TrEMBL record:
<dbReference type="InterPro" id="IPR001130">
    <property type="entry name" value="TatD-like"/>
</dbReference>
<keyword id="KW-0378">Hydrolase</keyword>
<dbReference type="InterPro" id="IPR032466">
    <property type="entry name" value="Metal_Hydrolase"/>
</dbReference>
<comment type="similarity">
    <text>Belongs to the metallo-dependent hydrolases superfamily.</text>
</comment>
<dbReference type="InterPro" id="IPR012022">
    <property type="entry name" value="UCP005295"/>
</dbReference>
<protein>
    <recommendedName>
        <fullName>TatD related DNase</fullName>
    </recommendedName>
</protein>
<keyword id="KW-0479">Metal-binding</keyword>
<dbReference type="Pfam" id="PF01026">
    <property type="entry name" value="TatD_DNase"/>
</dbReference>
């Protein structure tokens, strides 16, 4: 089955991973800007990173028949440096016309601090000003519930936002209902240490029916599995779910959400 991974960090993966993903059925992916494993010290460091996301990775992906899209921001882990964050936010419009840029992301909270909230809100202003879709990072583990509520409140307070153009990622059992109830899209991340397993993701699909729900691997520098989405496909098949439901979650839903971005020019694989 062809599938799309809506959140994977290929700058941290080898070229062999692209080949493996292609063999597993991945036809497209989106790569949000994120932490590099260390705090960057200048706006030029981010400019070079955005060139990698908009120039280098699309070419690496295309060599294996995969379409590569991206999102731009300064990640919440680096948002404590408000001055640098503002310089990066001011620079991002240089790249918004790049053909693979879908919007602003992954923005959000890490430790739920005041500075993180300030930078989050300024990213929202950028997205609204430039009519961009938004991809949200929710915090890890013990900060998950509080941070998600904080993010949802900040989003809901701005009446200018189109909630159908906002994806709130890394949802779990205790956050998914509120995300969907408030009208946003929800992303489930299949991660071997934190976030959720294919079995838990399958449970959440059964709970919600799969509407406005995406699933991703978030493969990055740490312990992660770039082929986690096929693991979910296998689990859903093992449970006897219809192929139409599986395709909806791993293929149709990403296309529907990404299509809200003007730069999303997806070319389905020729079935002939």
């Amino acid at each position: 089955m062809d599938y799309i991974d809506p959140h994977i960090h290929m700058v941290s993966r080898t070229t062999d991973d692209y080949a493996t993903l292609a063999r597993m059925g991945c036809v497209a992916m989106s790569e949000p800007a994120f932490w590099a494993g260390y705090d960057r010290g200048s706006v030029d460091g981010f400019r070079d990173y955005f060139r990698q996301l908009t120039e280098t990775e699309p070419k690496r992906a295309a060599a294996y028949g995969i379409q590569h899209f991206t999102w731009l921001c300064i990640n919440a882990k680096e948002a404590e440096n408000v001055s640098l964050s503002r310089d990066v936010i001011a620079m991002i419009p240089e790249f918004l016309d790049a053909p693979n840029v879908l919007g602003i992301g992954e923005i959000g909270l890490n430790k739920n601090t005041r500075n993180e909230s300030i930078v989050f809100l300024e990213h929202l202003e950028l997205a609204i000003k430039h009519n961009q879709s938004i991809l949200i990072h929710t915090p890890h583990l013990e900060d998950k519930f509080q941070g998600t509520r904080m993010i949802l409140d900040m989003l809901s307070d701005d009446q200018r936002l189109d909630r159908t153009r906002v994806l709130v990622d890394h949802v779990e059992e205790h956050t998914i209902a509120e995300v969907l109830d408030r009208g946003f899209w929800a992303g489930m991340t299949l991660y071997p240490v934190t976030k959720c397993t294919p079995e838990r993701a399958a449970d959440m699909i059964e709970m919600t029916g799969g509407e406005r729900l995406l699933v991703n691997s978030a493969g990055d520098w740490g312990p992660s599995k770039p082929t986690a989405v096929p693991d979910l496909i296998f689990e859903l098949r093992r449970r006897g779910h219809r192929e139409s439901l599986i395709k909806k979650v791993v293929y149709d839903n990403p296309i529907e959400f990404f299509s809200k971005s003007s730069n999303f020019k997806f070319k389905p694989r020729d079935a002939s």
